[in-house]
Amino acid sequence: MKNKLHIMLSLAAISATVLSVAQTDSTQVKESKIQEIEIPKETIIEGKNMRLILKEKQVIEKNGEGKDTVAKHSFEIVAKDRKERNAHEDELLVAEGIDFIETSWSNFHLGLNNLLNRDGKLDPEPGPEYGEMIISPANSINFQWDIVTQAMNIYKGKVRLVYGIGIDYNNYRFQKNITLNPDSMPLMVTEDGINYDKNKLVTQHLNVPVMLNFKLSPKGTEDDVYISAGANFGYLIGSHQKQVWDDNGKKKNKVRDDYSLEQFRVGYEVQFGYKNIVLFGKYFSNSMFKANQGPELRTVSAGILIGKV
Q: Fewer Cβ atoms within 10 Å of its own Cβ: the N or the C terminal residue of the chain?
């Protein structure tokens, strides 16, 4: 392609030179009787890396016998700098209906949580200290509120960097009547004589996902199918245990504590979307609890997201 462009430019240069020489010879004979009136015109041909400017100057000759109009041509090649080339690419994206930055507000994830032990099994950590921490996956809810999400175009609207900020709420419903003792280090778990209707640990994390998004739909069709994968960073902003039981009336107990939970967590997230319905899966590779301060349990979540960027 570059060779063709060079050949075309060379031919244009030769043609313009020959035409200019011929016109110069014809005008020298009548030099004393010529009155030139310049009417400049420019034709600009835009390329990705350069701009070709064709310049035309119209000359009206007056020699007493009539008027003749001739045209003199020249051309100029201007190389584009990186900033201008990027701006040109952005203009092409806009022409194709592709925004460089796309923003979405208030998307919601809804899913279920489960816990993996150090052996990668969906079981509590073995041993007498934490063996009673068995959760009910069907009642352990993951709810994530994406406050704002943005997608930055990387390649022709088909590959995008997706990032944002939100709050991730998780609850882990215990099957047994246990209490996590606040201010205990390491964490102590005791079994109660109360039959709880609800007994759960609840955590809230400030959540920052960073993912690559790939649109898989064929060119010329709607971007209905896509997949995203990347990292998920969380910072613990709150945690409590909530217990509800019946004792001649409904009783509630809610205790706020950090329960030796890790302040930071890093995980992985995969999303598969079709139109505005997205299935997601999340896995956090570090333990929920601090090392040697609680059980070694890792969160896995799966569910559905309504909305997309």
A: N
